[in-house]
Amino acid sequence: MLSILFFISLFPLVKADDWEDFTNNLATDLAPLITLFGERLTKQFLSESTRTLDNVIFALSPLGVLTSVVSVIRICGSSSLRAFVGRAQEGPAEAESELLPCVSESTAELFNDGGITRVFGRPKIVEIVAWEDVDLNTGEKKTKIGTLKDALEEKAWSCKSKVSPSELPELDVPNLSLNKGIKRRDQFWFNCAAILGGVLQSGAIMYAVLTVFVYPQHFQKDDKAVASYAFPLYLIGSTLLFLGMFFCAFIMERSSKEFYLEAEKPSKIYWLQPGNQHVGDQVFNAFLAVSEEPDSFRYIKSIRDRRFDRKYLEIYSTLASTILGFIFQFIGLRGLHASVILAQLGSTFLMAIIRTCLRTERMTPDENKMKDDRELMAHKQQELDCFAFYLEKVEYFNMVSLPERPACIPSPRSMPHIEAPLARQLIQTRTQLANLTSTSDQSINATWNDMPIRQIAQNLAQTIESTMDLISGWGVDLGKIFEFRLGFECRSSSPGSVTQSPGTYSVGLVRCGDALRWKMQVNELEAIIGLWTWSLCKSCDDFRSSRIFRIVGLSEEEASKEETYLYFHKWIFRQTEARLVPSDLIDDSRRLFGFEPKEGLPLGDLLAIRTENEVETMAAQDIFIQFLKEVCLNIKELGGEVDVVSGIQNSLLGSCTRIDELVSCFEANSLGSREDALLCIVPVLRNRNLLPDLAADCAKVRARREQLISKGKWRNAFELLRWLCQRSEGSQFERSVYELGSLCRRALLNNSETIRKEGFAQTCKLLNSDIREEFLQAQKVSLSSDLTMSQDRIEWWRSFSSQLGWTAWIISTKVPGMSFMQPGLKSLNAPESLSDLAGTNRDLEATQTGIRAMQDWLTVRDLENTGFKRSGEDEDDQWCFDWAVENKYYGLIYFLLLKWLEMSEHIPALVTLGYSLAANKHSQFALQILLRQGAEIDSPDIQGCPALFNQAALGNVEGIVLLLDNGADPNGSDKASHGRPLIAAVYGGHIKATESLLQYGANLNVLDHNGMTALWWAMASDHFDIVELLLSSGAGTESVGSDGLTPLLWAATEKNLAVLELLINHGANINAQNNSGKTALMRAVYREHSVPVLRLLLDKGADVHMKDDRGLTALDMANKANFYEAIAILGPSS
């Protein structure tokens, strides 16, 4: 086009005498050929033509004849025609992308920094329609978003076409050029262009008429009149060329079908394109464009239409008309005056400019609404999150902590809902965006599943689902619907807006399918993670270069406690060592992780772990923590087996099978490493009091300890117990220390000198300093002043060390060969004696006897070689135990009971003795020692009776309850039927003890070795109040004793008149018979002073006509015994 302008500018400079030569060279040779070319302009106009008027404008004074012909062949031509023009191997997508305005399954359009590029395949771009709707429930206006298909189905948009486009697969592929790329001019300008084109083309023809027919003398060619064939051929050629070019454009235009959609409700259309998108060799950046019209809003949907495929007559006719038209016009122009050629050239040139001007108004780069955040979005592919913020006009969005839900409230649905409209609307909008770009909803466009946010959301959803399946498999009843709450705060970007107070949002899971697996909405999690991550990235300038750390625990307060450091090293620590960070780097009310500043982490007071995780992973882990906190409220006890296992480089690790299962769910679904899983899971379990009890007295630990001892690895056994002592707290710490002290005592009594020396060295370590404080100092943990050792723990450690020191001193004095310890023990201030702190009233001799018994037990090695004699029922053993309990020498109690358990293989009654003494002294501490060591609480003593039987016989209600609370069987053992606790309490007349046993489920009708029930024994012992208690509790009244008597038959005497009446009132069979067929009435006849009994039986309805095995009635027996009072009572009048 610039070349043409150059040549035209030369016209005025040409001399008159050179005119003919110039026009002959330029006009007659060059100008007609220009019509053949103009490829770019032609393709551009054809690819944007959608109406018949566009075709007319294209055909008037046309340009690009050759391109038009080739374009028709490329779009609709046969394979032979395509081969003729060198396009035999060309796919349809390539031609469509160049020449048609439509999109299809193989072609699409993308924004390219302000322009629009047609590409092949299925790029990632989504077209979103937002329209106003009215809530039918509240009547309030709200904005809904969806695809064009959604808008058509919701009647927010309409299409006047006979065929609805809502079912077209191409409907989800945006038409960018027709609706955003080109700002179409008003129809007036197209009409003007068509009129002007017609005038120019007609003007050129009319000018030719003037040169040929009106002024032929002035427009001669080579001093002769123009040839007679020139004008007819020019006229015919121009007409055929117009028709051919029109039908070329028509065929091209009708090769795509346009649907015109109109908005019925106020609407906007958004086009969202993710960044860093590679299509071929091109990279497309993020782009957000919006289109809205204040009045009428129309959208053009153009799709491929193959109506001209195989219509060869129309195609060949069009091609022939175009080619012949050009040839005829060319020949005709060659025969006409040069000025006619220039007139035709000017007409073509002007129409080319007009066609170009019709579509020169295009979209500008400034229309990208995401240009300011393009770099930030590209890092995490967070275009959807940025778009959601833009739609809802939100400045920031944060997750916040919520008040704890009490365990008594079964579900979050029972908690009051705190409304946060903006946050809720933002999450719902982002969820809908996820739905629109997910696999299930996108029919044509490429899915967006490679986004980091979507991937981590899927990992989180799978982790939560598998965790729910796992916990349900443990037998925990979680119902069919489960919800967990998340708290959010949100602030609008509108001027004058304030931060909304934190509100709640519930995320639900449903148990469905034949396998009753738990399922949740992944897109909902994606929305929450994406929005939160986007807000965090926007608020942190250096988030790309900043490393992230997570605090250990669920709050700043917990992260600053010594106990947190202990359970971290016990359950969590694998390879990454924790460090203390300042509290101002994190806000635990919003998240449990923070960003490390450029200059590194200074020392502080919060225990934290550095991590290589990305920020979206940390956000997902925080959400998992909130979920786990909710679901753990439904778990009463975690269960599983606990142990200490070996780690890398000979390290030790706390282990629980149930925790390992939770960690496996976490790791298998790629939510983080094993250490990440433990950082999330362990603090929650501890917060919910579900963290397993892992101390040195656990069964697996004891077994591991004994295995090491059996292999002669005493030092490893000590290291195992020391590891637990250093990392335990509370009762676990105390029990572990007691176990370590007991192991020291065992080592000191070992036959091997090496082991005895190792035992002494370990004892000295314990006497020298607090084992846990020593560990913390070795780890270089700087604790704040309020975290130093409490006075109670100082006193506890002082008491324990004195008891351990006294034990070691006794061993050094009473065990041969152990005196070498005495200097060392003296230097550590080990006491040679323990005072009687309790100040009991027991006589001094009994106290001394108890102390000597304690010394004997603590220093005995074995029974065979020392002559140590104990039966398990010695009184001094009781005094020994009582002295330790009354003086609160818990370490000695622990050592003593462990020694009894050790020797129970030879003296089984020691176990029962331990339980009995613990119950006597109401010592829960002693009882728990025996239980945790695996001692059977119902084990028998020498007489075969359990401890509960002994307590019942004594009527010790507190002892009975203590044993029952810890699992004692209220019915005793069937193997020792003579040791029934209920019968013992009844026989002793202990009504309170009887009530306690009944409350704990004792069987009222259980039989002893004599075949008698508790009711029998209560009657035999004349305990009327207990008889009444048993009967009111439902004791059976028809049990038959060894003599064939029921309780009523046995009670049919004057002595037991009150019991007899009580039995009758509680439904006892008044006509029951013994082995010889005698009833209570018959038995009363033979007894003296039984008249009250007879009257009572008769008053209660006893049958006087019943006969025994000999056929005698009660009256017959009275006559035979000459019992006149009875005869008078039983006579005919009765």
TrEMBL record:
<keyword id="KW-0040">ANK repeat</keyword>
<feature type="repeat" description="ANK">
    <location>
        <begin position="1076"/>
        <end position="1109"/>
    </location>
</feature>
<feature type="transmembrane region" description="Helical">
    <location>
        <begin position="229"/>
        <end position="252"/>
    </location>
</feature>
<dbReference type="GO" id="GO:0005634">
    <property type="term" value="C:nucleus"/>
</dbReference>
<feature type="transmembrane region" description="Helical">
    <location>
        <begin position="188"/>
        <end position="209"/>
    </location>
</feature>
<feature type="repeat" description="ANK">
    <location>
        <begin position="1010"/>
        <end position="1042"/>
    </location>
</feature>
<feature type="transmembrane region" description="Helical">
    <location>
        <begin position="56"/>
        <end position="77"/>
    </location>
</feature>
<keyword id="KW-0472">Membrane</keyword>
<feature type="transmembrane region" description="Helical">
    <location>
        <begin position="313"/>
        <end position="332"/>
    </location>
</feature>
<dbReference type="GO" id="GO:0045944">
    <property type="term" value="P:positive regulation of transcription by RNA polymerase II"/>
</dbReference>
<dbReference type="GO" id="GO:0000976">
    <property type="term" value="F:transcription cis-regulatory region binding"/>
</dbReference>
<feature type="repeat" description="ANK">
    <location>
        <begin position="977"/>
        <end position="1009"/>
    </location>
</feature>
<dbReference type="InterPro" id="IPR036770">
    <property type="entry name" value="Ankyrin_rpt-contain_sf"/>
</dbReference>
<keyword id="KW-0732">Signal</keyword>
<protein>
    <submittedName>
        <fullName>Uncharacterized protein</fullName>
    </submittedName>
</protein>
<dbReference type="InterPro" id="IPR050663">
    <property type="entry name" value="Ankyrin-SOCS_Box"/>
</dbReference>
<feature type="signal peptide">
    <location>
        <begin position="1"/>
        <end position="16"/>
    </location>
</feature>
<keyword id="KW-0812">Transmembrane</keyword>
<keyword id="KW-1133">Transmembrane helix</keyword>
<dbReference type="Pfam" id="PF12796">
    <property type="entry name" value="Ank_2"/>
</dbReference>
<dbReference type="InterPro" id="IPR002110">
    <property type="entry name" value="Ankyrin_rpt"/>
</dbReference>
<keyword id="KW-0677">Repeat</keyword>
<feature type="repeat" description="ANK">
    <location>
        <begin position="1043"/>
        <end position="1075"/>
    </location>
</feature>
